[in-house]
Amino acid sequence: MRHAIALHVLLLLGALVALEEEPQQEERNSVNVSVVTWNLAEGSPKLSDLRFLEELGEKSDLICLGVQEIENLTPRRQEGHRCREWRRLQHRVLGKDFVRLGHHSIGSIHLTVYGKRELASRTKLVKMSDVVCGVGNVLQNKGAVAAFLRVDKTTFLFITAHLAAHQTKVAERNGDYWRIIGELEQEIPPAWIKRAAKRRQKALTGTAAAGAAPERAAHGGERSVFLDMVDRVFFFGDLNYRIDLDRLDVQRGLVAAAAVAGGGGAAAGGRGGERGRRRTAIVPEACLQPLPTSSPWVKAAAAKPSLQSLLDFDQLTLERSRGGAFVGFSEARISFPPTYKYDKNSDTYDSSAKMRAPAWTDRVLFLPHQPAVQALDYRSVQTARHSDHRPVVGTYKVMLTK
Ligand SMILES: *[C@@H]1O[C@H](CO)[C@@H](O)[C@H](O)[C@H]1NC(C)=O
Questions:
Q1: Which atom of ligand 1 is nearest to the CA of 60?
Q2: pTM higher than 0.90, yes or no?
Q3: Which fold has domain 31-244+314-399?
Q4: Is 376 in the pocket of ligand 1 (CB under 6 A)?
Q5: I need a surface site. Which of 86, 268, 300, 349 has the fewest CB within 10 A?
Q6: To which H or E segment does residue 65 belong?
Q7: Which distant-in-sequence residues (6+ apart) come within 8 Å of 200 by Cβ?
């Protein structure tokens, strides 16, 4: 009798242990990936600006940091002081729990990949590459840096880029995109290509694991073969796409969105008492004048008085939907104000003579979409203000393949 009870207790304990292990088992089939893009505008952030990175460290297995304009472009033989400082800050914030898996740069574009220590034995950085897109495809002020990486059997490609600048240069940005994709296609490790071919063969003969085929079929549309050879792709950076509206219409849109969000929220991004002050700060007198009904934003906003009325004119979204670039990529919903161009150390959009229109230049795109990659968070960091750009952070739950 005693024996029987003891056995029951043991079985019960066994069941409890099994229950406890279940979530861990589930965890092993996915990793949390955080991606950061930040145009540093040739300045160093303060340690206190990196609180967000500390928070990312608590919930991420992989962290990829892509920065642009870390230094000015004078040729130098040694690492510049801002690069050193950026490395020191990262180490200070992430060094305890993370291993630096790799780092590579061209000109002022830097990519650094960190992996949680517990994950280190399952993660392999296969290689890093770069593509130059500046003037004549020689000048290293524009281009991309990429990391080819594996977690268990799942292959990842992280691409950070700085694409062509200026409001009207959409075609040049699209051109940079295709050039980057084309060049990186040549860099795919042969073992990845073989594996992808094998899996395609399996899918054709119907023996593929359930789920693999629908995941790939779901994209639809025309896309680079390249993207079929890598399981998970993240493309992020200062992609430089603007809003196809003039400055006044963008500002009107932000003011309207702020009003919809409750007098601050989405567009102001400030805290508490700062809201009122900030709202007036970004609204010049001219915004308060009656609007000409021919204004494109006025027409759009009649239907959607929120950030959406501006996103309807976002060049990147428009290009994606018409197949101009980033075909097949997804992006999480944008609920943060444009991340460019601020007066440095302020919450005010460009008040210089150039009066550049605010834009969502800093973005994170990924592929494939749900359920393989699920966005958990997508936001700008409004408190990090040394640059004329705000950092943008995306966090994703990424399913691993068998
Ligand atoms: C991944 O993110 C989710 C949602 O934030 C969190 O609940 C989970 O604990 C994270 N996993 C790890 C390993 O940090």
A1: 14
A2: no
A3: Deoxyribonuclease I; Chain A (3.60.10)
A4: yes
A5: 300
A6: strand 62-68
A7: 228
